[in-house]
Amino acid sequence: MAHRIAVIPGDGIGKEVMPEGVRTLEAAAKCFNIELEFEYFDFASCDYFIEHGQMLPDDWFETLKGFDAIFYGAVGWPETVPDHISLWGSLLQFRRRFDQYVNLRPCRLLPGIKSPLADRQPGDIDFYVVRENTEGEYSSVGGKMFEGTEREVVIQETVMTRHGTDRVLKYAFDLAQSRPRRKLTSATKSNGIAITMPWWDERVAAMGQHYPEVTVDQFHIDILTAHFVMHPDWFDVVVASNLFGDILSDLGPACTGTIGVAPSANINPEGTFPSLFEPVHGSAPDIAGRGVANPIGQIWSGAMLLEHLGHQEAANAIVAAFEAVLAACDNSVLTPDIGGQGTTEILGRAIARAISDGR
Ligand code: NAI
Ligand code: MG
Questions:
Q1: Which residues surround ligand 2, an ion (CB under 5 A)?
Q2: pLDDT tens digits for 19-54?
Q3: Where are the domains of the chain?
Q4: Which of 115, 129, 239, 355 could form a disulfide with 321 if both were Cys (CB 3.0 to 4.6 A apart)?
């Protein structure tokens, strides 16, 4: 049966990298006899907002909920729509209503890409950040009193539930269990945040009981960020609450070079709702319209999409293809962010060709 994919290019370079994401998915699908059916949507973009006064149509939930996955570009055009409106009106609605409680980001140093960390080679950095994506520090519990007076007070509560914490920990432990190193690192701050974080540590220890083969360690978030930079080779799977995960999942990919290659997945592991796959980068207004954005973040997100749908081999083929193209270091093919003079389309086509050649 065909997998139904909702394609939402969004804004700016989202519209430029998406065709390459779809091109490479189609190439992989053809090689591995996978049936993919793409349906395109123009909502969740600032152009849609300008025409309709809202980011999404009223029936977006009904429209999208039956899809097997959502393939997203990027949202945001601050010149016309403020960022908090475009983001809250689109992506954050998807994450919440579709209960995409795992935010997954691979951090891997690729061949041909220079890490900002000195002397790091491909193989030295290869880990995942698993971020809790629905609760924690990003809660709507709290409020403001005596606004504008001397007595002004603001409170925002962290909300951690056993349900919400255990399910993301289970995902992270399963992932660690499936990898050769079988190592899990938990981000904590139980010295300073003395109620929720010691409890988080307890839940990690309790979940760890079910995974005797997984080695577990933990670091306070402050020193953990330092270790990401000093010792990225220590990590395999790193699990974190919403806020800590937000920080780590930007820092991790930053340690591996350009933001243009980093992918991410917002996953509803049970498949009750579609999961969403998107590059880490935004709409990049500074380079939009020139056709020079790096499409690898979008393409790698497509590989994560296929993996999520159970097509591991096809996903591996996409990753192998862009690694091969990067390793070849042909400057007429690579985009300017990684030192070349190529375009989004030239690089996308080269990767699609490498997928077909690899078979
Ligand atoms: P950004 O990721 O769009 O750009 C940051 C810098 O990285 C820019 O200099 C850009 O040219 C460069 N860059 C980004 N992607 C690239 C690629 N594929 N190839 C080459 N260079 C690339 O972040 P920024 O500028 O903070 O935000 C711009 C807009 O994107 C805002 O409206 C923001 O809200 C939105 N945004 C959306 C995200 C999403 O859709 N998930 C994530 C981050 C930002
Ligand atoms: Mg972030």
A1: 246, 250
A2: 999 999 999 999 999 999 999 999 999 999 999 999
A3: 1-121+262-359, 126-255
A4: 355
Residue 85 tokens, joined: 């409106």
Q: Hey, what are 350's tokens?
A: 């080269």
CATH topology of domain 126-255: Isopropylmalate Dehydrogenase (3.40.718)
Question: At a CB cut-off of 8 Å and minimum separation 6, what does 178 contact?
Answer: none
89 CB within 6 A, ligand 1:
no
Query: Each residue of 181-227: pLDDT tens digit?
Result: 999 999 999 999 999 999 999 999 999 999 999 999 999 999 999 99
For residues 155 and 83, what is the distance between their CA atoms, to the nearest angstrom? 24
**Residue 74 parent element (H or E):** strand 69-74
Q: Find the ligand nearest to 103 CA.
A: 2
Q: What is the CA radius of gyration of the chain?
A: 20
Counting ligand 1 atoms within 8 A of each CB, the residue from 77, 80, 259, 341 with the most, and so the one to mutate, is 259
What is the whole-number distance in angstroms between the Cα of residue 255 and the centre of ligand 2?
15
Q: What is the mean pLDDT of the chain?
A: 96
Query: Which of 246, 276, 283 has most ligand 1 atoms within 8 Å of its beta carbon, as the pocket-test mutant?
Result: 283
| Fold of the 1-121+262-359 domain | Isopropylmalate Dehydrogenase (3.40.718)
Distance 249 CA to ligand 2 centre (A): 7
Q: Residue 305 has what pLDDT?
A: 98
Print burial letters for 309-328: b (CB count within 10 Å at least 16), e (below 16): bebeebbebbbebbbbbbee
- Look up residue 25 and give its two tokens: 């998915």
